[in-house]
Each structure stands twice: as structure tokens, then as C-alpha cells.
Write a structure and sequence with these properties.
InterPro entries: Methyltransf_12, SAM-dependent_MTases_sf. By secondary structure, the chain is α/β, with parallel strands linked by helices. The chain has eight helices and eleven strands. The chain has a single domain, classed as Vaccinia Virus protein VP39 (Rossmann fold), CATH 3.40.50. α1 runs antiparallel to α2 and α2 packs across α3. The longest helix has 18 residues. The chain is globular.
Length: about 270
């Protein structure tokens, strides 16, 4: 799609310029002592998120990312990278972890938004050109995933996109070397996964974060199940689905506006 016919500017050019700026910028090395996600792959995981967001962005028709929501933001594992990819954007950092939200506000200048256990009761006062949802749908039931994804889609700008992650087919194999949940819980997950394409089981209380209540555990979803759920959300289109794309681990999907059935100019609606 040509964005400027006089200079021949395409989405490829727009994204390439942003990536060049990101590569030349310095990503913050400030780590919260409370960041439980910090490990030897910490920065690689953030870079991989940028790679996937850039691919989705190139597939979209939005040449300007002005407002970004990172949910759940944690302590800025991905946010610190997005600040460099979109240096002129406004950022909202949202999480149930109050300390993580405060860290993102104080360290990265994001607007702090303390989330709610039921995300559908979280009402945002703006729309977003990008919503990044890294490793949230990996921890909730299919009913919640459908409901929360549909809720977040309501806050996309007219050409906004949401990029999210799931535990896909590869994660069935990852479990053998990196168990996500107890063996009993994993059997429950696999039973649902094999029968419907989406499996889920709650964590035991000792496995879960203290600030979370209700349905929170591990999910495993086949690509067709995720796509089928996306197809039920009105007003959007599917941009991409990539297996084991986030740091060679989680699957990545992207949705956007306008809707898949948005008519061509002059075409009857």
C-alpha cells in the first residue's frame, strides 16, 4: 500500500525507518530488583517482541503509532524496547502488579494504569494504535481469552493493531524440559487441548502470584482454535499468525482494524 504516492512511501519503508532508529538507540538496562522475569534471555525476548510487532505493523495500514498500551507490562521487559521503536508515542503501562506499574511509570515515563482482575471492568479513556499483550492469554481459560480479547479490540484506533501471544503446538514439547504446571494440571490441559484445541487448568495456590484471584493458570491452544475465536470478534481482521515466533517459544497473532469486510471506496456496504 502506497502511503504517499509522490515519494512512493510504503509500509515497508515506514517500518524499515523505525527499525533502523530502534537498532541505533540504546535500550534501558535498568532492572527492577522485583522483576521475576529477569534472566539471561531478558533482552532477547524484548527484541523478539519488536520483531513480531514490526511484522504485524508492516502488514497493517497505519503509518503512525501514536499511543501504545503494554498489558501486562510487568517491569518493562518489552516496554523498554517499544520506547525505542516508537520514540514519539505515548505509552500506557497496565498490570495487576502495582509495583511493576509504578516502576514502568518512574523509569520509562509511561502512564501507570493499575489493572483489574476482571479485565472487562477495566475501561480505558483512549484508543490505541498498538496494544501489546505478551503472555496473558497463555494463562487464562478459553472463555476468558475470548472475552478479554474482544474487550481489548474495542480500544483499537480506526487503524490500530493488537499483537498477542499464546502457548501453541510447540509448547506441548517445551513442557517436557520446562514444565509450566504440575503433572496433574498438565493432564487436565492436555485433555482439553486434544478434545477441543484449547486446554486450560488453574494453578494450585502455591504456584500462582499472590495478587491474582480466580481463573489463572496455564493454557495450550492450537492455531485453529485461536483463529476461530478471532473470527467471532466483530469489526476486526486477522493480520498474522506465527508459530513459536516470540523468542522461539510462544505463538504470536495479530489483529487490527478496520474490519475484514470494510468495503472498498464506492462499494456498497
Amino acid at each position: 500500500m502506497l502511503l504517499n504516492k509522490e515519494i512512493g512511501m510504503t509500509m515497508f519503508d515506514v517500518v524499515a525507518q523505525a527499525i533502523a532508529g530502534y537498532r541505533s538507540a540504546e535500550v534501558s538496562r535498568t532492572i527492577s530488583p522485583s522483576d521475576t522475569m529477569y534472566n539471561q534471555w531478558y533482552y532477547e525476548i524484548g527484541e523478539s517482541a519488536v520483531d513480531n510487532i514490526a511484522l504485524a505493523w508492516q502488514a497493517s495500514s497505519n503509518d503512525r503509532i501514536s499511543r501504545v498500551l503494554d498489558l501486562p507490562c510487568g517491569h518493562g521487559r518489552v516496554l523498554r524496547h517499544l520506547l525505542r521503536l516508537f520514540p514519539d508515542a505515548h505509552f500506557d503501562a497496565c498490570d495487576l502488579d502495582e509495583e511493576g506499574v509504578a516502576f514502568c511509570a518512574n523509569t520509562f515515563g509511561a502512564r501507570p494504569l493499575l489493572s483489574k482482575a476482571d479485565l472487562t471492568t477495566m475501561h480505558f479513556d483512549t484508543s490505541y494504535d498498538l496494544i501489546w499483550v505478551g503472555s496473558l492469554f497463555t494463562h487464562i481459560s478459553r472463555d476468558l481469552a475470548r472475552t478479554w480479547l474482544s474487550h481489548l479490540a474495542n480500544y483499537l484506533s480506526p487503524r490500530g493493531m493488537l499483537v498477542g501471544t499464546t502457548h501453541g503446538r510447540w509448547c506441548e514439547h517445551v513442557y517436557k524440559v520446562h514444565p509450566y504446571i504440575s503433572p496433574e494440571g498438565w493432564r487436565v490441559v492436555l485433555n482439553g487441548y486434544k478434545s477441543s484445541g484449547y486446554g486450560y487448568c488453574d494453578y494450585h495456590p502455591e504456584e500462582s502470584h499472590t495478587y491474582l484471584r480466580g481463573s489463572y493458570g496455564i493454557s495450550l491452544a492450537m492455531p485453529h482454535a485461536t483463529v476461530a475465536d478471532i473470527e467471532q470478534i466483530p469489526g476486526i481482521r486477522l493480520l498474522m499468525y506465527r508459530e513459536r515466533a516470540w523468542s522461539d517459544h510462544q505463538d504470536v497473532f495479530a489483529i487490527c482494524k478496520p474490519a475484514f469486510n470494510d468495503p472498498w471506496p464506492g462499494m456498497p456496504a
